[in-house]
Every structure is written in C-alpha cells, then in structure tokens.
Amino acid sequence: MKALIVEDDFIARHILKESLSPYGKSDIAVDGEEAVRSFLSAWKENSPFDLICMDIMMPKVDGQDALRQIREMEMLLGIKDPQRVKVIMITSVDDLSSMNKAVAEGGANFYMIKPINKQKLARLLTFFNFHPKT
To answer: Angle, to 10 degrees, between the axis of helix 118-127 and the axis of helix 10-20?
Structure first.
C-alpha cells in the first residue's frame, strides 16, 4: 500500500506515519496544496496512492477543497471505483456538517476524529483490504 499523509500537525503526522508503516510506504504533505500536487505527480509517475489520510483544517488549501480537487482530477483522468484513491478525512472537530460535507459531498470514504485511534485505523485499513506486509 502506498499512502499520502496530509497533515499540518507534526504529532498527528508522526502517529499516522507510525500507524501506517506496517502496511507500506507513506509520503507526507503539510497542506492541501501540496497534497493535490503529490496526488497528480504520483499518477504521472504511474505510482498512484492507494490511501490518503487528510486533515480537514489546514493552511493554504484545506482538506475539503483538496479532496474536491483530487476527485475532479480522478474524473478527468478517467479513474473510477475501485481504482479511486481511498480517502480518510481527519479532524479535531466533532462536527456533523463537516463529516457530511467530507463524505456525502466530497467523496471521502471515511471520517475520523482526532486523536487518532490506532486500533480503529487498523480495522478501517482491513475493511479497505489493506493488510500489513509480512
């Protein structure tokens, strides 16, 4: 599995990187603008991401807007389910409208509230059919 962690908080990035390390390689982006560039670059290099874990509240381009741009790029590239990248939106705000916007409107696959629960993340990765490398 190849993942992109999009998070402006150092500690949250570290927790996600550590949690995802048994599953494969993870790249880092510190804001939504960098995430969109990384997503497109990975496709151009024929090495797309399988998973994006993205914070909602970030400087420059927030996670909601970055997700919208990524889903638009997938549409333009002709990428359809099940090849679309799996996206977990992450936030520190337990807000139903943000969750609805991320999942129903934005096309996120799941929504998690900080602090990151490693066991819940592992179960979610299994649900997405991602397994630790042996």
So the answer is: 50
